[in-house]
Specification:
Elements lengths: L1 H5 L8 H26 L8 H22 L6 H25 L4 H23 L2
Helix pairs in contact: 2-3, 2-5, 3-4, 4-5
Length: 130
């Protein structure tokens, strides 16, 4: 939020919504990255292959989305909206898959929650883009 408050021009979106989304994107990317490592440490790793793949994809999409949405100079709402929608989609898919394993693996439960928060934040930011 400090960086957004220090921005020398007028933001194109509500600073609070943008800050919440940036935090959710970073949290989700980190949770997905950590979940992949935890999944690879499980004895039944072959049952977690889809989860691993979706977590890797989700972390990559979240990272790209946070980088683009953090740049406000010459902001292109079409690009940001497309990325945020894609991010919400992968967060939903990844969250669904992690939830399938949540009762057996705490790390999957934590990751699913981060995905849900990120999906919600991305959708809210799409609605706030001017």
């Amino acid at each position: 939020m400090q960086m957004l408050n220090a921005y020398p021009r007028t933001l194109n979106v509500d600073a609070g919504v943008l800050a919440t989304t940036i935090d959710a994107l970073n949290d989700c990317a980190q949770a997905c990255t950590a979940d992949v490592d935890d999944d690879l440490s499980e004895r039944n790793v072959t049952e977690l292959i889809k989860c691993i793949r979706l977590c890797l994809d989700c972390a990559d999409v979240c990272t790209a989305t946070v980088r683009v949405t953090s740049r406000q100079t010459e902001f292109d709402p079409n690009v940001a909206t497309s990325l945020l929608q894609a991010c919400a989609t992968i967060c939903r898919s990844c969250g669904d898959e992690c939830e399938r394993h949540a009762q057996m693996h705490e790390h999957c439960r934590v990751c699913a929650e981060a995905c849900r928060r990120c999906e919600k934040a991305c959708r809210e930011l799409v609605g706030a883009i001017k």
